Amino acid sequence: MDVLGYDFMIRAMLAAVFTGLAAPVVGTYLVQRRLSLMGDGLGHVAVTGVALGLLTNTSPTWTAIAVAILGAMLIEVIRERSNGGGDVALALLFYGGIAGGVLITGIAGQSASRLQEFLFGSITTISVDDVWITMVLAAAVMVIGLGLGPQLFTVAQDQEFAKVAGLNIRAYNLLLAVLAAVTVTVAMRTVGLLLVSALMIVPVATAQQLSRSFRATLVAAMGVGLVASLGGLLLAAWASYDVPGISPGPTIVLLALAMFAFTWPLGAWLRYRRRQRVPFNELPPLAHHTTGEHPHRHGENCGHAAVPHGDHVDYLHDGHRHAVHGEHYDEH
Amino acid sequence: MLNDDPVLQIVDGTVPIAGRPVLRHVDMTVQRGEFVALMGANGSGKSTLMRAMTGLRPLSRGSVALFGTPLSRFRDWHRIGYVPQRPSAGGGVPTSVWEVVSTGRLTRRRFMRPLLPRDRAAIREALEVVGLADRHRDGVATLSGGQQQRVLIARALAGEPELMLLDEPTAGVDLPNQQALASTLATLKERGVTVVLVAHELGPMAPLLDRAVVMRDGQVAYDGAPLADHEVHGPFFGPGHHHHHQESVRPHLDHVPPVLSPMDAAHEEVQP
Lengths: 332, 272
Known about the structure:
The complex is a heterodimer of chains A (332) and B (272).
Chain A: H1 7-32, H2 38-56, H3 60-81, H4 87-107, H5 112-120, H6 128-147, H7 149-157, H8 159-164, H9 169-191, H10 196-207, H11 214-242, H12 248-276, E1 289-290, E2 306-309, E3 312-317, E4 320-325, E5 328-331
Antiparallel strand pairs in A: 1-5, 2-3, 3-4, 4-5
Chain B: E1 8-17, E2 20-30, E3 35-40, H1 46-54, E4 61-66, E5 69-70, E6 80-83, H2 97-103, H3 117-129, H4 145-158, E7 163-167, H5 175-190, E8 194-198, E9 211-216, E10 219-224, H6 229-232, H7 244-249, H8 261-270
Parallel strand pairs in B: 3-8, 3-9, 6-7, 7-8
Antiparallel strand pairs in B: 1-2, 1-4, 4-5, 9-10
């Protein structure tokens, strides 16, 4: 029952590792710029590219890349022209992309199931050539995305400051859009065009539950992406012995979402705790109020948060701040 | 590079926004080491003037020169430290104070090279000058509005600039933070850094001033010795605070995307 022995499985694992690592790199910059849905849009546009490949009998991967890059540039132009409010124009582009794709596939005389390979992924039928393309493009995305990290981060962080720092912000915006387009087509074989964005965004959403810096988010998102894509692939492969019909694409995405579902409450709790423990201002209390009879002694394990307040700590107790004062507690 | 070139010179500067002339025939020169405040009412064009000086707003007439070089050919961006009007720290990914400040070092870094010890030292020093060295690992979003403003100043300082341009650094900042800001600027002034800032009210920065430039209706109305806050809002420099029709006619002159204000409200809640 060793799935690892098959050649197609080796190829699939290579593709999964590379896409799982590369997609969150671009995704982190997209989330930073609040463009989480851009990958989705590019995925829709790439459907037309795939269909053009099927129609002209050329490699759907290359036509998808070409069309997705064109789409990315168009989105960037619309965004720049419409001053940030171009979401309707973007939506029109997305619908045009998927409608055009379905129409052209029909004209090409291809069945819907052929298109479905690209819509929902077919990582286990990936060819040797496609594995090479996937690995080279994913490596390129990672080299550019990490190597130009300082520039891309600065532009994503504050466009005006970046411009006054002498960066060509239009070029970097375009670069990020092109990276997103390439990532979309790279991940197309792994999880499919309709789920591409999940592999870019969900790992970032998972990572930032626990991280406090951009770099930590980026690195952790790559880890989550890797675990999700490789783990999802293997999980689907093993599970399909028992339940035929389990495909890797949705398994990968659901595994990533499960990781998010696991970290989100943890992150929410950590944020709550961090916020609660922010020291109080070092102002003296307005008057000396003491608490009445106090039910217990505050201490390390009393269950009440201890917050620094000048030279002592206040214990948070039912909306009150209790500070030790000799044998009793003061209201601070 | 000649040392007696003015640090900043704008000649016959005219800037239209959406077809309306917002800045009209402005001439202004700043010499090395000066501390200049651009003042004036809302909509007088003071922020637009600052943005024209940085190249963020293209001129339709006239010219801007930085350190004697026309803006179009200016490449020594590390000599400029720009502090935009309001923290745009609201990205979707948590970002540490250190990371934001380190982007200010980009103008001095070589392409595709990691941070050198020299860069790290400059970032640390910038954080110390604004008094946030102990918060460098914290997320920017967890800081108060005034502290975020100081982070942006540290970011500009990290590039070790010769000219600091600050757009309304005191807007919406409480008095203790304004005082922290003033002492930071005093440090810079001692080091010989040229400072140009846009301010509605000077507050604790008033003693630092060498010169005030007051804008009125897109033109320079006054350029000379420092003025007290109330003089700037006198009848001559109007439109005063009761001329609200002036503001409503003009298209959106402050450059803050309004989306950012809910963030500030969130920070207030964090404050005890």
